[in-house]
C-alpha cells in the first residue's frame, strides 16, 4: 500500500551516502576521494590508488610499502585450489571460473564471517575486528591476480606459475600468465605500466551494477568473498564488464572503415548496439576514455598497431558527429578503447571481463568496508515490489485443467 514503481533500473534512486568516488556525468568528471582521475593516472599506481579508495587518504611512503607487502604476501593460493581449477572444462569462460573461484576461496576463511561465528559484526570500534577486515581485503586483492592467471592458464593446458617475488602488482600478474619457463623472464615494463594505468582507471566507479550487487549481497552480512563473487557475476554481463569484449566482436563484424556507415544505419534501426558508447551517468565522453586512448598508443609502440584500430577510429569519429548519438548524448565510454589494448597485448577476447574484475575488486571492497563500518550499522537491502499477478485462486488437479 502506498508503494509506487517509479524508478525502473534505478535511474534516480540513491541508496547510500558515500565518500569514495565522485562523478559529474554532464561535465565528464571522475574523482577518487577528491583526486581527479587524470592526476592519479599520471602520478599514482594501482596499489597506491587502492589504498586511497579503501582508507580515504593517500598513504605515506611507509604505509604504502606495508600495504603493498601485505597484498603481495597474500598472492599465493592453497595448493588444493589447483584441483578446483582443473575441474572446469577446457573451454569454460574465464569469468565463470573467476566468479566461482572467489566463492570457493571464501570456504577457506571462516573468520571472514564473524556473525556466523557468533562474534560481533565487523566494527570500527574494535581494533581486532578492523585487523580481521583488513586481512580479508589484502587477501582478496592479493589473490585476485593469481586466480585470474590460473583461469587463464588452465584453459591453455599450461601448468600454474607460483606468484614471483619482487615484481609490481601488474608485473607479477603478467609473469604468472605469460611465463613459459624461460630463465630470467620479465614482462615488458611498458605493458606492465600500461596495465597498471588501466587497473587504476577501472578500480572504482561508484554504484554501478556490480558494486551495487556487492553491497546488496554484503548487506545480508555474508562474507566478503561471496559478495565479491556476486559482483563478478554482475560484471560478467555484456551491458557492464562484458562490453569491452562486445566492442571487439562488433569491430570484427564491421570489418573495415568503409562498412561503418552501414553499421551505424543498423544501430539507428535498432538492429545493432554500438558497444562502447553510452553510459548511465556520463552524458559526455567518459574521462577515462581519453587516458585509455593515449595508453593505447604507448602499447601499440611495443606490440604494433591492432588491425582493428582504423575501423575503431572511423566508427568513433562518425558516431561522435552523428545526430542520432549526439541527440541521445551517447559518447565513448571506458570500454571503447580498452579492448583494443588487451587484444594487442595478446589476451583472448573472453578474458577481457576478467581484466575488468581484477582491479574492480578494489572498489567493491572500498564500498563494502564503508558500508560495514557505518556508525548506525548495516541495514539489509530489501526493496519492495508492487504485486500485479493473479488474485487468490484454488489449486486444480491435472484432469480439470484446460
Ligand atoms: N547504441 C545504440 N543506442 C544506444 C546505446 C548504444 N550503445 N546506448 C543507449 N542507446 C540509446 C537507447 O536505445 C535509448 O534510445 P531511445 O531513447 O531512442 O529509446 C537512449 O540511447 C538512452 O539509452 P538507455 O538504454 O536508456 O541508457 P541506459 O542508461 O539505460 O543504458 C548503457 C546505459 C551503458 C547500458 C547503454 O548505453 C548501453 O547498452 N551501451 C552499450 C554497452 C556498453 O558499452 N556498456 C559499457 C558501459 S561503461 C562500463 C560499465 O559500466 O561496465
Automatic annotation (TrEMBL):
Domain of life: Eukaryota
Molecular function GO terms recorded: acyltransferase activity, acyl groups converted into alkyl on transfer
Pathway(s) the chain acts in: Carbohydrate metabolism
Keyword check for Zinc: no
Keywords, sorted A to Z: Transferase, Tricarboxylic acid cycle
Active site: 279, 335
GO biological process: monocarboxylic acid metabolic process; tricarboxylic acid cycle
Similarity section: Belongs to the citrate synthase family.
Name recorded for this polypeptide: Citrate synthase
Organism for this UniProt entry: Lactarius akahatsu
Amino acid at each position: 500500500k502506498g508503494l509506487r514503481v517509479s524508478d525502473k533500473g534505478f535511474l534516480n534512486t540513491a541508496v547510500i551516502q558515500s565518500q569514495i568516488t565522485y562523478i559529474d556525468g554532464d561535465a565528464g568528471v571522475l574523482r577518487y576521494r577528491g583526486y581527479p582521475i587524470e592526476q592519479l593516472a599520471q602520478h599514482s599506481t594501482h596499489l597506491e590508488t587502492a589504498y586511497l579508495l579503501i582508507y580515504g587518504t593517500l598513504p605515506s611512503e611507509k604505509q604504502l610499502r606495508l600495504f603493498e607487502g601485505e597484498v603481495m604476501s597474500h598472492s599465493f593460493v592453497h595448493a588444493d585450489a589447483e584441483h578446483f581449477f582443473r575441474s572446469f572444462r577446457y573451454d569454460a569462460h574465464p569469468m565463470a571460473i573467476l566468479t566461482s573461484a572467489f566463492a570457493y576461496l571464501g570456504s577457506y576463511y571462516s573468520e571472514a564471517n564473524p556473525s556466523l561465528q557468533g562474534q560481533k559484526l565487523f566494527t570500527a570500534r574494535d581494533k581486532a575486528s578492523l585487523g580481521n577486515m583488513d586481512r580479508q581485503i589484502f587477501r582478496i586483492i592479493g589473490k585476485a591476480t593469481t586466480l585470474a592467471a590460473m583461469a587463464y592458464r588452465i584453459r591453455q593446458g599450461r601448468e600454474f606459475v607460483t606468484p614471483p617475488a619482487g615484481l609490481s602488482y601488474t608485473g607479477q600478474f603478467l609473469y604468472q600468465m605469460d611465463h613459459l619457463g624461460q630463465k630470467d623472464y620479465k614482462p615488458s615494463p611498458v605493458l606492465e605500466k600500461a596495465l597498471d594505468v588501466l587497473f587504476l582507471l577501472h578500480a572504482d566507479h561508484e554504484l554501478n551494477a556490480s558494486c551495487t550487487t556487492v553491497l546488496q549481497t554484503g548487506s545480508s552480512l555474508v562474507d566478503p568473498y561471496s559478495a565479491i563473487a556476486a559482483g563478478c557475476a554482475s560484471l560478467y554481463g555484456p551491458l557492464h564488464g562484458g562490453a569491452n569484449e562486445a566492442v571487439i566482436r562488433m569491430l570484427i563484424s564491421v570489418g573495415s572503415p568503409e562498412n561503418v556507415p552501414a553499421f551505424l544505419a543498423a544501430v539507428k534501426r535498432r538492429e545493432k548496439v554500438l558497444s562502447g558508447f553510452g553510459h548511465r551517468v556520463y552524458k559526455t565522453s567518459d574521462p577515462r576514455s581519453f587516458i585509455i586512448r593515449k595508453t593505447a598508443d604507448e602499447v601499440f609502440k611495443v606490440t604494433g598497431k591492432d588491425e582493428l584500430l582504423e575501423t575503431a577510429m572511423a566508427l568513433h569519429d562518425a558516431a561522435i558527429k552523428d545526430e542520432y548519438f549526439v541527440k541521445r548524448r551517447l559518447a565513448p565510454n571506458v570500454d571503447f578503447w580498452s579492448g583494443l589494448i588487451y587484444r594487442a597485448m595478446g589476451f583472448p577476447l573472453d578474458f577481457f571481463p576478467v581484466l575488468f574484475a581484477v582491479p574492480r575488486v578494489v572498489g567493491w571492497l572500498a564500498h563494502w568496508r564503508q558500508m560495514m563500518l557505518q556508525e548506525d550499522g548495516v541495514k539489509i537491502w530489501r526493496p519492495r515490489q508492487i504485486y500485479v499477478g493473479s488474485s487468490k485462486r484454488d489449486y486444480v488437479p491435472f484432469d480439470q485443467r484446460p
